[in-house]
């Protein structure tokens, strides 16, 4: 075997390894595959185009950003520090919006996903580093979200075992990802995310000094304690998350494919100013929704938990006390919010990993494909969820797990952000749609902010 053939042999072996679980699943659930075929070829698939056009990848990404990791982190910040850190909900908005706009623009203009672009324009080592880190972070996030979903469910159904709930949620999520198009799946789960509005209701109902709330929102305050620096990094990590970079880019490509733009050349030709403008409205609106929810979670927890001396959240039922003023129904809303956003976010975690690895190794990929058409792609999804189950069954504290997952995101984000800013600013790739001066400033500033917060978080773990 010649030396140049060695990498290809390794890539093929990796592909075969990830194909194995998909082949097993494919052979064992023939009847389900037939049902999925009818769904894809029938009304659900035909309605995907109009559904995605209505919601948009930006809004979907914004909703997924408020996953259980985000809810836990914002709740802990509000409970521990009251309104002191609520300014982060405003501070992060332009940064996350600019970054997600860059990712979406890369997908639209290049006609390819983020990993495919990194593979094409950077060294393989850089790509493997990025996707490897993403795989680890997403596995941790899946485990943490499954744990939080199980803990929230036990608020309503305490008789069901924690482990059973983890396996149940993972199995349902996995089967829906594999056998139903994500667009159809998310269409119904999106309604569950509206339960997050319960935090808006609580924040408006409790006795808050809204003059103080607005002051704290626009005037940052930091004490520079190790605990607070660690929590700020967690907030940044759960808001500006690496998995969203890959997901946003790939979803823009998938949306084009569902419109019939099946070749890279055709997708690049459709990157019109009108398409870019529409994407920006979608992305900035989605990020606004995400940060508005985080703002009210801060306020709700500051007005309930912090106001009553509960400054540490160790379990999901303690976080539920943020809605205690509304009685039993409040617990129901909290649990549904955790479960709904978790069921929405897990496919995004697993899907972004699958996109990244598939594009890195040149495999067939896409949620619009059937299982047998992209076995390695779906194999990555299966492996990611199974590893998440294993990690979740280790019985780690769900809330602490979610916060540490957010910190992991904060550490990994600067590395992947470097590729995002470089790609979106390259005029050879982006043509007339390359970053402007202001966009570049925001992009590089985001990298610096995320790098500093990640380093600070690691230092606080040891000192």
Structure report:
This protein is mainly alpha-helical. It has a single domain (5-462), classed as Amino acid/polyamine transporter I. The chain has helices at 5-28, 30-41, 43-46, 48-65, 68-81, 88-110, 114-121, 124-156, 162-179, 182-193, 197-205, 210-218, 226-239, 242-258, 264-269, 273-303, 316-320, 327-361, 375-392, 398-424, 427-430, 437-462. The protein is globular and about 65 Å long. The termini are far apart. The model is unreliable at 42-52 (pLDDT under 50).
Count of DSSP strands: 0
Largest sheet: none
Oligomer: single chain
What structural category characterises the helix and strand content? mainly alpha
Can you tag this structure with a few keywords?
463 residues; mainly alpha; Amino acid/polyamine transporter I; 22 helices; 0% strand
Question: What is the compact description of this entry?
Answer:
The chain is an all-alpha fold and 463 residues long.
Write the layout of secondary structure elements.
Layout: H1 5-28, H2 30-41, H3 43-46, H4 48-65, H5 68-81, H6 88-110, H7 114-121, H8 124-156, H9 162-179, H10 182-193, H11 197-205, H12 210-218, H13 226-239, H14 242-258, H15 264-269, H16 273-303, H17 316-320, H18 327-361, H19 375-392, H20 398-424, H21 427-430, H22 437-462
Helix pairs in contact: 1-19, 4-10, 4-14, 4-16, 4-18, 5-13, 5-16, 5-20, 6-14, 6-16, 6-20, 6-22, 7-18, 8-9, 8-18, 8-19, 8-20, 9-19, 10-18, 11-16, 13-20, 13-22, 14-18, 18-19, 20-22
């Amino acid at each position: 075997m010649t030396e140049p053939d060695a990498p290809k042999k390794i890539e093929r072996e990796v592909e075969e390894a990830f194909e194995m679980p998909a082949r097993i699943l494919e052979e064992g659930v023939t009847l389900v595959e037939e049902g999925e075929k009818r769904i894809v070829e029938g009304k659900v698939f035909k309605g995907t185009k109009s559904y995605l056009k209505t919601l948009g990848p930006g809004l979907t990404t914004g909703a997924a950003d408020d996953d259980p990791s985000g809810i836990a982190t914002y709740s802990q910040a509000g409970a521990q520090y009251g309104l002191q850190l609520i300014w982060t909900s405003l501070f992060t908005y332009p940064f996350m919006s600019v970054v997600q706009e860059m990712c979406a623009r890369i997908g639209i203009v290049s006609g390819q996903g983020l990993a495919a672009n990194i593979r094409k324009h950077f060294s393989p080592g850089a790509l493997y580093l990025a996707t490897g880190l993403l795989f680890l972070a997403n596995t941790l996030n899946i485990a943490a979200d499954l744990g939080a979903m199980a803990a929230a469910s036990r608020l309503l159904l305490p008789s069901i075992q924690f482990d059973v709930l983890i396996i149940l949620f993972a199995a349902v999520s996995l089967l829906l990802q594999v056998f139903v198009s994500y667009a159809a799946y998310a269409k119904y789960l999106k309604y569950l995310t509206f339960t997050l509005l319960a935090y808006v209701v609580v924040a408006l109902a409790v006795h808050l000094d809204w003059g103080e709330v607005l002051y704290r929102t626009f005037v940052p305050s930091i004490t520079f304690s190790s605990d607070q620096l660690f929590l700020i990094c967690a907030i940044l990590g759960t808001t500006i998350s690496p998995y969203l970079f890959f997901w946003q880019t790939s979803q823009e490509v998938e949306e084009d494919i569902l419109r019939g733009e099946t070749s890279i050349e055709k997708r690049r030709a459709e990157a019109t100013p009108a398409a870019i403008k529409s994407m920006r409205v979608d992305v900035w609106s989605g990020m606004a929704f995400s940060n508005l929810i985080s703002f009210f979670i801060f306020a709700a927890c500051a007005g309930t938990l912090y106001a009553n001396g509960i400054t540490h959240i160790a379990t999901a039922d303690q976080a539920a006390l943020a809605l205690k003023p509304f009685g039993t129904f409040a617990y129901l809303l909290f649990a549904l919010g955790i479960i709904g956003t978790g069921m929405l976010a897990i496919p995004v975690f697993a899907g972004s990993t699958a996109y990244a690895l598939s594009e890195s190794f040149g495999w067939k990929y896409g949620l619009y494909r059937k299982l047998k058409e992209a076995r390695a792609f779906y194999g990555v999804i299966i492996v990611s969820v199974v590893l998440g189950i294993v990690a979740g069954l280790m019985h780690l504290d769900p809330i602490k797990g979610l916060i540490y997952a957010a910190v992991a995101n904060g550490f990994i984000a600067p590395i992947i952000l470097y590729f995002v800013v470089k790609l979106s600013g390259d005029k050879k790739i982006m043509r007339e749609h390359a970053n402007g001066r202001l966009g570049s400033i925001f992009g590089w500033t985001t990298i610096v902010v995320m790098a500093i917060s990640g380093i600070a978080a690691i230092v606080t773990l040891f000192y």
